[in-house]
Amino acid sequence: MSPERDVILAVDIGGTKMAAGLMTLRGDLIDRTQVPVDHSLNAAELFASLCSIIDDMRARAGDHHQMTVRAVGVGCAGPVTTNVETVSPLNISSWRNFALREHLAATTGLPVYGDLDAKALALAEGWLGAAQGRANFMAMVVSTGVGGGVVLNGQLLDGATGNAGHVGHVVVEPNGRRCPCGSRGCLEAEASGRAIEAITGRPPTEPSYETMQRTGELVGRAVASVCNLLDLDLVVVGGSVALGFGATFFNSAQAVLDRHSRLEFSRGARITPARLGDRGPLVGAGAV
Predict the structure, then answer these.
(1) Cα–Cα distance measured from residue 246 to residue 261, given in angstroms and rounded to the nearest whole number
(2) How far apart are CA 46 and CA 32, in angstroms?
(3) Whole-angstrom Cα distance, residue 70 to residue 73?
(4) 105 and 210, same structural domain?
(5) Do 146 and 178 fall into the same domain?
(6) What is the pLDDT of residue 3?
(7) CB atoms < 10 A from the CB of 57, how many?
(8) Kind and range of the H or E element at 59?
(9) Are 74 and 129 found together in one domain?
(10) Which of the residues in the chain have pLDDT under 50?
(11) CB 128 within 8 A of CB 276
(12) In what order do the strands lie in the sheet with 112-116?
């Protein structure tokens, strides 16, 4: 492939929106668009909505950028099976065991590669972002849902089914709110965008100081458990909730992380914003 003429069609699928973009082989995101997730649609209709932005990006690749799309890279909210053969995002009820890879390959005629959205973010932040040059770290998405991707000894962890890194289902409030996974008190049930709206009656774009602080504290609690378990000293956090809450969130998360990471190897672990910002999910999808 030619770095000057070829691009990857990157696709990011979350509980609130689906995005598509064009990424060069150097990791530059040269174009992108998005569409909201309409939860009233059935599986086929939702995929048609995704196809509308994919078709738009493919057309712009040739007509506007004079470049050729060579492959499709996907980051999708989980759970997923290997290479997004099937996806069952907890926050997209119409897709249960949806054959995403097969549908995308048939639609585009291109090779399709995919992984969890937060694992894709880990690839992006390790390649071009806040974890560049680091062999051990976790990347997190705190948005509509909460997910994670873990890199140990330079290798992205897959786990038995490809779903390693689901930090959103670490329990942070025993006997807390019911989670979409069926358990109670998961980080996702307490600190995701959907949870915040359900708890406060306000969208996460209109948070109180107390909401931003509590969300950071809960994330810090989960992060401390992971750092103590896996001997990590860096956690990179992206997603619209975390980045939107800004310094209040990150300062609260760091304070709790400091309080609960007391072992010699985990003391001093840092939690930091994703350097790639809102570009990270698509860059990660392209990197898959």
Answers:
(1) 22
(2) 19
(3) 10
(4) no
(5) yes
(6) 72
(7) 22
(8) helix 43-63
(9) no
(10) none
(11) yes
(12) 29-36, 17-24, 6-13, 68-76, 112-116
Q: Are 184 and 171 members of one domain?
A: yes
Pair 84, 183 in one domain: no
* Alpha-carbon 107 to chain mean position: 24
What is the pLDDT at residue 162?
93
Domain of residue 163, CATH code: 3.30.420.40
Q: 1 in a domain, yes or no? A: no
How confident is the model at residue 156, as a pLDDT?
97
Residues in CB range of 43: below 8 A, 6 or more apart:
94, 95, 98
Domain that holds residue 51: 6-116+281-287
Cα separation of 16 and 171, whole Å? 23
Q: Which residue, among 38, 82, 32, 24, has the nearest Cα to 54 in the 3D structure? A: 32
Measured at the CA of 82, the angle between CA 183 and CA 100, to 5 degrees, comes to 90
Using one digit for the tens of pLDDT, what is the confidence trace for 211-260? 999 999 999 999 999 999 999 999 999 999 999 999 999 999 999 999 99
Q: Reduce the DSSP state of residue 101 to 3 states and report it.
A: helix
Whether residue 125 lies inside any domain: the answer is: yes
Statement to judge: residues 80 and 153 lie in one domain: no
134 and 99 co-located in one domain: no
